[in-house]
Every structure is written in C-alpha cells, then in structure tokens.
Design a protein that fits this description.
Blueprint: H1 2-16, E1 19-27, H2 41-55, E2 63-71, E3 76-84, H3 92-102, E4 104-110, H4 117-126, E5 131-134, H5 143-146, H6 158-161, E6 162-163, E7 166-167
Length: about 170
C-alpha cells in the first residue's frame, strides 16, 4: 500500500508543475542569548517564507510544494520542497550562501525527473508528515490532476493507519 501511495502522490506532484528546483533546508540552532534553544515550526515557516521571497521571479510567482520533516535526533523541522516557475537570473548558489548566513544549511539543486525528487518528497506521505503546504497559485486550476489519484488509492483501513506504532488520525 505504501508503494502505491508514494507512486500516486509522486505522479500527481509531477503533473502539477514543471519543477525547476529540489530544495532542502536544515535550520541551525540559535547563537547567543535568546529565549529559545532550537528552531521550531515558526522558524521553519519564516525561513521558507524568506527563501521564497528571495527566489521570487521578477514576473509571476513561484510555484512550490513544501514539506517539513521532524529530525528525530534534534527534534526540529527540516524542509524539503519542489519549486517551479523560477527566474533563471536567480543563482541557486546565492540562495545557498544567503541561507547559510541566515538559517543554516540549504541545498538548491536543479530538478531532474529521472532522479525522482518528487518521489523523494512523497516518502513523507507514508511516514510522518509534520506539515505540508502548497503555494497558493499551484492549486488554481489543477482539477484535471486530481483525477490521477482516483482509483489508485483505496481508503486506508485502521490497520494501515497504524504504522510503526503510530496511529494516523482518521
């Protein structure tokens, strides 16, 4: 069932946009005196918002899907995203350098369908998704794509909702 779910999600995400980048961000712990000891969801969302603002094309808007994974050894969010409609004049390495100085480690790689980045992103669908978000413009007219999931994914049984001792909300 997990393989079918990943495959369906991967195909669906692959059809939503002509993806340009695969992005990961690992947030660093704060330095100096502050009221918190490690980054949480608010920091991760702020980091992603700042990243997309810096990467925004001069004309139009970025299209993206972003997922947070909780790094179990640190207990902090880790960002995984696909980004489309990018501006070719925006240098990926400039974004990496900016992120290093502001938030932590970032990788902004050219998207390659053959490498299966959309499938890498969807592994969190069958594991533990901390948070998933789509850019506002990504879902504007994708009703035809919703049909690609119909018939491929059967409703989960209660047994399938309990994975590795964790019960998924019904």
């Amino acid at each position: 069932m997990n393989a079918e779910l990943k495959q369906a999600w991967g195909e669906w995400l692959g059809e939503l946009c002509d993806w340009d980048w695969f992005v990961t961000m690992t947030l660093k712990n704060p330095r100096g005196i502050c009221s918190w000891t490690k980054p949480g969801y608010a920091s991760a969302k702020r980091a992603w918002g700042e990243f997309t603002a810096r990467a925004r094309p001069a004309l139009g808007e970025l299209e993206w899907v972003r997922m947070f994974e909780i790094q179990h050894w640190r207990g902090v969010p880790h960002v995984h995203a696909l980004v489309g409609n990018t501006d070719p004049s925006v240098r990926r390495l400039d974004l990496v350098d900016w992120a290093w100085g502001r938030w932590g480690i970032a990788r902004v790689e050219e998207y390659n369908k053959e490498l299966g980045a959309r499938f890498y992103l969807t592994k969190y669908v069958t594991k533990r998704i901390a948070d998933i978000e789509f850019s506002r413009n990504l879902g504007r007219d994708h009703s035809k794509h919703n049909e690609s999931l119909v018939g491929k994914i059967a409703p989960l049984t209660m047994k399938e909702r309990t994975i590795r001792g964790r019960r998924w909300a019904a």
